[in-house]
Design goal:
This protein is an alpha+beta fold. The protein has 4 helices and 9 strands; from the N terminus they run βαββαβββαβαββ. It has a 7-stranded mixed β-sheet with strand order 1-4-5-6-7-9-8, with helices on both faces. It has a two-stranded antiparallel sheet with strand order 2-3. A hairpin with a 2-residue loop joins β5 and β6. The radius of gyration is 14 Å and the shape is globular.
């Protein structure tokens, strides 16, 4: 999959937020509290990118931010693209993109997932992420870059 990224516009943010109403996007803040996608996208410390597939259609997004020298990312596909094999490509392309965008500002990427998000946990493990911390409600995974 060949995904391109660009900083999200308000129009794209509204498209993503409106499409999230029927789908459960689990997001977490720096203190491991579950928050809504709207709060995550609107955090002052985050940079949000829209992910575009063939024909430049928006297929998802990735929210990135730093915390204590670690880059956190939260990639997600729009509901209409889940279950079709796009996730693996999105995660790999996201890693490549953020390494280029942020250059050498970090050596580790982390993601936060709900503890019961078995398919997502498996996907990130296939990409090379390892569980580094967890609770009953969340799993934190990391990969060195």
């Amino acid at each position: 999959m060949d995904v391109t990224f660009r900083q999200m516009t308000d129009v794209e943010a509204n498209l993503i937020i409106s499409s999230c109403s029927d789908y459960d996007y689990s997001c977490f803040d720096d203190d491991h509290n579950e928050i809504t996608i709207v709060k995550l996208i609107n955090q002052d410390t985050s940079i949000t990118f829209s992910a575009h597939g063939a024909d430049d259609e928006v297929i998802g997004f990735v929210v990135t931010h730093f915390n204590n020298g670690v880059l956190y990312m939260a990639p997600a596909l729009l509901d209409s693209y889940t279950g079709q094999g796009y996730g693996y490509g999105l995660v790999n392309d996201t890693i490549d993109f953020i390494q280029e965008f942020y250059e050498d500002d970090f050596i580790e990427i982390r993601v936060m997932l709900r503890h019961d998000a078995e398919k997502a946990i498996d996907l990130f493990q296939r990409v090379g992420f390892n569980i580094c911390d967890e609770s009953q409600s969340w799993v934190e995974m990391s990969i060195e870059v």
